[in-house]
């Protein structure tokens, strides 16, 4: 088929483009902007891309147009596809129709933690010889790409609760035909489409209602929202968490600077001590969720758990982008106060005694709004200092609803964490290149390109005194 994809550079859309191309379809796509890592992947896969949207691109009448949820009803290409009565699908609809089909669908869902948990699950299943298919909203380093068409019966899919498309306002994960669900957390997010916490919780209840009687839910008992949703579910529940309780757990978590070690527990009894290469207590929690799913699929935990030490992580999840003149620069996708808190805590655990600078760009539709201002005031505990920039495209958010980076910087400073507000990435680079000392760690948190701040900062630091 000849397939045109509108808004192709999103993590999900780009991954689907790669899968379709690998399956033999002729794929192309357009987007407003292209940035790594997906821009680089699309180029590597030989998929033609076009900057900007133009209805004329559909003049050859492709067999199918797939519309990403970033598109608004007035998008020229999406509008033209509908007016021309071309075959149109949303991203989750196309994924389900082309690839999930009747496979054993393992949906990994939650407010945060789902990308790493899904990557871990796919990694463990592959290590156990199951060869699962997967599509993940990030790029697992061990696979080198965010999708795979395996020969095994399982399909691991990251289940996003965001809406499907402008013509289908249901959550994406309702399309994924779940047989089993891994639920990491249910907190409030996406205030632009969910008017209140109750509507957000209802979306996850709808997902869990799709699990068949012979299916299963693995739920994190540490998270109040996930635990409540699990108690409302009608299917069997497999529990996991760091706090004492039933199911898989962990204790004695430590980090030696290169790996995270923990004692694995089942119902409070030790199963041995294991290692995880990626940092953070929250990633131990993610590992427990993946192990719980594996156990539900009949795998021997004693044989699977040792594989955790070989998992390299996911791009843009506490990823070390480099070191220059003694300063380490980390890249993280955190865009919710809970995830921000976890990322800062993980960086502190991995780099004890080093000066930790947390740099945060509010970029999502929710983080650019003031709804979580109070929560962000305690999300940077553990950082030695914080730098905040203006919300991305702040002018698109009404002033009364807009995240106030300057006000948060003042509040953090009053609470004892030195913080400053700088205008943009360029100002951050100039500031840190002028005063960062060898041994410092800079944790940059944004869910977008952030004007290539990571590499530009490394270049500026390297230019002042040599790099490695």
Brief sketch in words of this structure:
The protein is an alpha/beta fold and 468 residues long. The protein has 14 helices and 23 strands.
Distance between the termini: 47 Å
Task: Specify Rg, calculated over alpha carbons.
Answer: 22 Å
Which CATH class of the largest domain applies here? Answer: Alpha Beta
CATH superfamily grouping of the largest domain? Mur-like, catalytic domain
CATH domain fold name of the largest domain: UDP-N-acetylmuramoyl-L-alanine:D-glutamate ligase
Class of secondary structure makeup: alpha/beta
Spatial strand arrangement across the major sheet = 8-7-9-6-12-13-14
Number of helices: 14
Number of domains: 3
Q: What are the SSEs and their pairings?
A:
Layout: E1 2-6, H1 11-22, E2 26-31, H2 38-44, E3 49-51, E4 64-67, H3 76-83, E5 88-90, H4 91-100, E6 104-109, H5 114-127, E7 133-135, E8 147-148, E9 154-159, E10 163-165, E11 168-171, E12 180-183, H6 197-208, E13 216-220, H7 224-232, E14 237-240, E15 248-255, E16 260-266, E17 269-276, H8 281-296, H9 301-304, E18 319-324, E19 327-332, H10 337-350, E20 356-360, H11 373-376, E21 385-389, H12 405-414, E22 419-422, H13 425-435, E23 441-445, H14 453-465
Parallel strand pairs: 1-2, 1-4, 2-3, 4-5, 6-9, 6-12, 7-9, 12-13, 13-14, 19-23, 20-21, 20-23, 21-22
Antiparallel strand pairs: 7-8, 10-11, 15-16, 16-17, 18-19
Helix pairs in contact: 1-2, 1-4, 5-8, 6-7, 13-14
Task: Give the key terms.
23 strands, Protein-Tyrosine Phosphatase, Chain A, UDP-N-acetylmuramoyl-L-alanine:D-glutamate ligase, Rossmann fold, single chain, alpha/beta, 468 residues
